[in-house]
Write a structure and sequence with these properties.
single chain; about 290 residues; mainly beta; 8-stranded antiparallel β-sheet; 7-stranded antiparallel β-sheet; about 0% helix
Length: about 290
C-alpha cells in the first residue's frame, strides 16, 4: 500500500513509471523523518520513545520505523550472534528484546555499517511489529503496521450501473454504488444491501483486518468461496462503506455499465511479516 507496497511507485509492480531519460535502479529505497512522536511497548514497559523516527520504505514492504539508539531503553536489547545481510543496507545485527520476565528473540535489528548514502540509519534500531505489545503515535495505538503517510482512501458516489451475476442469476444490481479508491489498489465498487439478493450471500467464518478500514466479513456465493466482502462497522474515516458489499470480479461476474470488470494482478495483501501483523486478534486486544 502507499509508496512502496502493492502497486505504489516504489513497488516491483508499480502501475506508473518515472519520467527519466536513464533507467532507474531496479530497487529504489526511500527514507524520511516520521515527524511524529512514536513509542513502542513491550511487557507493559515503554522501551522506545522518540520524536526522531525515520521511516524506511523498501519495495514490496510496508514502511518500517527506525528509532535512534539514545531513544531506546538499552537494557531492553540483548545482543545475539545472529547477523544477516540486507542486500541494500549491509550487515544486520539482531537482538532479543527483554523486559521483566518476558523475552522475544530476533525482535529488533540494526544495520551495523550502512553505506554512506544511507548513513542516517547508523545507530538506529527497528522492532518486529508482531513481537511487540504495541506501537503508538502519541497515545494512540497504531494497528497492523506503521502508518504510511502516502496511503490515501477516497470514496465517491456514482450513477453508473453495477451488476453482479453468478450461474445465470443476478446477485446485485445498483444504480447508486460507491467506488473506493485506495493507494496501490484498483478501484473497488461497493453496493448497498437493498440492491442485493442477500439470500444468495452466505456469511462464512474468518475475518481479516485492514489498518485503514477495519474488520472485514466474507461471503460465499453458491460454490464460490469468499466472493464478496463487507466492513460491517468501517472506521469513521471510511464510514460511507459501512455494511455495503463488494464483489470479487475474478470469482463472480461484475459488470459496470455493461462492461465486465477483471481483477488486476498484484492486488492480494500479504497479511503477516516482520513489518506487519494483520491479525483480527490484534484489533480485538486493542
Amino acid at each position: 500500500m502507499g509508496l512502496s507496497w502493492q502497486q505504489g511507485p516504489l513497488s516491483a509492480g508499480a502501475v506508473g513509471h518515472f519520467l527519466t531519460a536513464e533507467p532507474l535502479p531496479e530497487r529504489l529505497l526511500f527514507a524520511e523523518p516520521l515527524r511524529r512522536r512514536m513509542r513502542v511497548k513491550y511487557n507493559g514497559t515503554w522501551i522506545a520513545d522518540s520524536e526522531n523516527v525515520v521511516l524506511l520504505y523498501e519495495p514490496g514492504r510496508y514502511p518500517v520505523a527506525y528509532f535512534p539508539r539514545e531513544d531506546v531503553d538499552a537494557q531492553a536489547l540483548v545482543a545475539t550472534d545472529r547477523v544477516t545481510r540486507n542486500k541494500d543496507l549491509g550487515d544486520t545485527a539482531w537482538y532479543t528484546v527483554r523486559t521483566g520476565d518476558r523475552a522475544a528473540e530476533r525482535a529488533a535489528w540494526e544495520f551495523t555499517a550502512p553505506p554512506k548514502h544511507a548513513a542516517e540509519f547508523k545507530g538506529r534500531v527497528a522492532f518486529a511489529w508482531r513481537a511487540m505489545d504495541g506501537f503508538y503515535e502519541e497515545d494512540e495505538r497504531i494497528l497492523g503496521h506503521a502508518a504510511d503517510p502516502y496511503h490515501r482512501i477516497d470514496i465517491r458516489e456514482t450513477s453508473r450501473v453495477l451488476e453482479v451475476r453468478h450461474a445465470g442469476a443476478v446477485i446485485a444490481r445498483s444504480e447508486h454504488p460507491v467506488v473506493l479508491f485506495e493507494s496501490g489498489f484498483a478501484p473497488r465498487w461497493y453496493v448497498p444491501r437493498a440492491d442485493i439478493d442477500e439470500a444468495r450471500l452466505r456469511l462464512v467464518e474468518g475475518q481479516t483486518f485492514c489498518p485503514y478500514k477495519g474488520v472485514c466479513d466474507y461471503y460465499d456465493i453458491g460454490e464460490v468461496d469468499r466472493s464478496a466482502w463487507s466492513y460491517p462497522a468501517a472506521y469513521a474515516e471510511v464510514g460511507r462503506i459501512s455494511d455495503l458489499v463488494s464483489f470479487e470480479p475474478d470469482k463472480v461476474e461484475v459488470y459496470l455499465d455493461g462492461r465486465r470488470l477483471e481483477q488486476e494482478p498484484g492486488q492480494n495483501v500479504v497479511p503477516h511479516g516482520i513489518d506487519r501483523g494483520l491479525d483480527v486478534g490484534e484489533l480485538r486486544r486493542h
